[in-house]
């Protein structure tokens, strides 16, 4: 499903946006499969990532939703925390969704006891900002593309965080109920919601376009 307003694509006709790209999905906990299926449907090769070695040679990375405090703990148990920080800080195009956004952030306002983030995206976040699991909702939102167009995307909010503060260089790409739920900064895209659940490929295609740009350099 695409957004209501179509953005002009730079891809030649017949070529899928992910073709020739290998994208990792951090596969410690959470909604890994949905991202993998969406990326594959866009032509990318997908690698499930649990170790630092599996980060090598990737063109892009997705940190999925799930439970951020659990994902955080597992990154340390699996020894992949430092390699993740290193890879993302070195410019790997990375999309963090929901718990993945929390993982990317510089500061968590209300962490679980002992919870750390990777600290690579210059934002602070608040967890569970729209209520609990029972308050989950499907929402259509305007999304600001890198070209400055606004497209409508179909999303799902599941115990979603919000961005409570942004530093310089962080662009707000989406708001819900007045709260920041989407950001972009350099090689990073962070979203509070789950387009992989509704099947809207807009944000994943943006990640793949970014990966293609970085690979072409
Ligand atoms: N509330 C969860 C957390 O704090 C995130 C929920 C999600 O990823 N769907 O990690």
UniProtKB/TrEMBL annotation:
One of its GO terms (molecular function) is glutaminase activity. PROSITE patterns: GATASE_COBBQ (PS51274), GATASE_TYPE_1 (PS51273), PDXT_SNO_1 (PS01236), PDXT_SNO_2 (PS51130). CDD domains: GATase1_PB (cd01749). Keywords: Glutamine amidotransferase, Hydrolase, Lyase, Pyridoxal phosphate, Transferase. InterPro entries: Class_I_gatase-like (IPR029062), PdxT/SNO (IPR002161), PdxT/SNO_CS (IPR021196). Pfam families: SNO (PF01174). The active site is at 98 (nucleophile), 194 (charge relay system), 196 (charge relay system). It comes from the Bacteria. GO terms for biological process: L-glutamine catabolic process; pyridoxal phosphate biosynthetic process; pyridoxine metabolic process. It catalyses: L-glutamine + H2O = L-glutamate + NH4(+); aldehydo-D-ribose 5-phosphate + D-glyceraldehyde 3-phosphate + L-glutamine = pyridoxal 5'-phosphate + L-glutamate + phosphate + 3 H2O + H(+). Pathway: Cofactor biosynthesis; pyridoxal 5'-phosphate biosynthesis. Its EC number is 4.3.3.6, 3.5.1.2. GO terms for cellular component: cytosol; glutaminase complex. Catalyzes the hydrolysis of glutamine to glutamate and ammonia as part of the biosynthesis of pyridoxal 5'-phosphate. The resulting ammonia molecule is channeled to the active site of PdxS. Belongs to the glutaminase PdxT/SNO family. In the presence of PdxS, forms a dodecamer of heterodimers. Only shows activity in the heterodimer. This is Pyridoxal 5'-phosphate synthase subunit PdxT. It comes from Rothia mucilaginosa (strain DY-18) (Stomatococcus mucilaginosus). The gene is pdxT.
